[in-house]
From TrEMBL:
Domain of life: Bacteria
GO molecular function: 2,3-dihydroxybenzoate-serine ligase activity; phosphopantetheine binding
Transmembrane segments: none
Pfam families with a match to the protein in the record: Condensation
UniProt-listed InterPro entries: CAT-like_dom_sf (IPR023213), Condensation_dom (IPR001242)
Domain Condensation, chain residue ranges per copy: 11-448
One GO term of the biological process aspect: enterobactin biosynthetic process
Name under which the protein is recorded: Condensation domain-containing protein
Any single Gene Ontology cellular-component annotation: cytosol
Naturally occurring in which organism (per UniProt): Micromonospora peucetia
Length: 453
């Protein structure tokens, strides 16, 4: 390997799993994490390019390329960021057309070997612009996205004022890789492996009925249904959590598991929950994939109440988070039958105190900015639910789904049924899950007209 190839670094287990997925479907955009900010007036291009270089220089994953040496994947770190920025003048398209263009940017596959994990595209209208960052999941997670935007806005402000960017620290993902390798080489590995083997013994993944047969080869194509939870529902979730002495997320997970039980007829099943593995001050500022999928296993009997389902979800989450350091790919690989442990996932993304993505007063200096919500991570699982907790405690929910398997109408109906069960659970947590109505008013009227109950 020549010096021009870059400095070679090892991958984490999670990155290796992402690389394997990429090798299976290099033309897929399923692992593209897409975020966008609308700014008025449009950004200064020279300053923006310099700010991109500064961010890449601080976070080495953003100036890395990925390849293999022999049979092992590695990342090659370039000495300096490129600041590559594609500028597209799109005329006076309306907001809906602009969102369509943003999604098209996100659907272009990333070339990890030649271009690296980051693509930056500026879509310029006459009086404003949308800056779109597309980053492969091999190099980012939800918190990393916020760190990148924060650093980009900070660098832009300094450079626009004529200063030089001088980061106090240059956090490295290598710190996490070293910690993970030490854990896997030590006694903690056996302890965690035993726990997850027990949790997953004889487990079956929650498996929804599909609109089409499962294909032999997945295309990893997906789409999303995104909605705000009604304010009253979000308020009821918080109140119910307080009454049951659990977190609001436990309520959301417990009711979601109840939905899966009702839809699948499965009395016992597993789902996945991506959780942070950022532990300690040294990893607080690191950009990279610092999440791991933990397995949640639930059980329902005819008399299970919402309260007991929610309490059980709280225990599942607590146990999973405490043992999240053990990579999910190793848990899955240990299964003798190789059947997937997870086909459905649910996760919560909360706003951090220094998140500037959606803050019109603390974003890019000299510009009015607002975040444009762009669903991503679509198609990796049959169904992946992401709940965004917004600054005002509102809850924005995305149902991302595999379009090889599910139609949008099916997912819309699942969303409606989830809302119906949330309402039932919050109205009476002691109610039995099996007895709760799942159809909304309009759907119930339609069923009655058809002579169904």
């Amino acid at each position: 390997m020549s010096a021009g190839d870059g400095d070679a670094r090892e991958l984490s287990v999670g990155q290796a799993a992402q690389w394997a997925l990429y090798r299976l479907a290099p033309e897929s955009s399923t692992s593209n994490v897409v975020t966008a900010v609308l700014a008025e007036p449009a950004f200064d291009l020279d300053v923006l390019r310099a700010a991109l270089v500064a961010v890449q220089d601080r976070h080495d994953l953003l100036r890395s390329r990925f390849t293999e040496t022999g049979v092992e994947p590695v990342r090659l770190v370039d000495k300096a960021g490129s600041g590559a920025l594609e500028v597209r003048d799109v005329g006076d398209v309306d907001d809906e057309a602009l969102r369509t263009l943003i999604r098209a940017v996100g659907e272009q596959p990333l070339r990890l070997g030649s271009d690296g994990p980051l693509r930056a595209v500026l879509l310029r209208r006459r009086t404003d612009c949308a800056l779109v960052l597309v980053i492969h999941h091999i190099a980012t997670d939800g918190l990393s996205q916020r760190l990148i935007w924060r650093d980009l806005s900070d660098a832009y402000q300094v450079l626009r004022g004529g200063g030089a960017v001088d980061w106090p620290t240059r956090p490295s993902y290598d710190e996490f890789v070293a910690r993970e390798q030490a854990m896997l080489a030590g006694p903690r590995r056996a302890e965690l492996a035993e726990h997850w083997a027990g949790t997953c013994a004889g487990a079956t993944a929650a498996t929804l009925s599909t609109d089409r047969p499962r294909p032999a080869l997945r295309s990893y194509r997906g789409a999303a249904v995104a909605r705000m939870l009604p304010d009253e529902v979000a308020r009821q979730v918080r109140a119910t959590a307080a009454d049951l002495a659990v977190t609001p997320f436990s309520v959301l997970v417990g009711v979601f598991e109840a939905l899966l039980h009702r839809c699948t007829g499965q009395g016992e099943f597993t789902i996945g929950c991506p959780v942070s593995v950022r532990r300690g001050r040294a990893l607080r500022e690191v950009v990279g994939i610092l999440v791991n999928l933990v397995v949640l296993r639930s059980s329902f009997v005819p008399g299970t109440t919402f309260a007991s389902a929610i309490a059980d979800a709280g225990r599942q989450l607590s146990d999973g988070v405490a043992r999240a350091a053990y990579p999910f790919s190793l848990v899955q690989a240990a299964r003798r039958d190789r059947d997937p442990l997870v086909r459905v996932t649910i996760t919560l993304l909360t706003r951090q105190h220094d998140d500037t993505m959606s803050d019109t007063s603390n974003g890019f200096v000299g510009h009015r900015t607002r975040q444009l919500m762009v669903p991503y991570d679509e198609g990796q699982f049959d169904l992946a639910v992401t709940i965004h907790q917004l600054p005002d405690l509102a809850l924005r929910t995305e149902f991302n789904y595999d379009t090889d398997l599910l139609d949008r109408a099916t997912v819309e109906r699942l969303f409606d049924q989830y809302l119906a069960l949330l309402g039932a659970a919050c109205a009476d947590p002691a109610a039995i899950v099996a007895d709760a109505p799942m159809a909304g008013d309009s759907e119930q009227r339609m069923l009655l007209e058809l002579g169904m109950s």
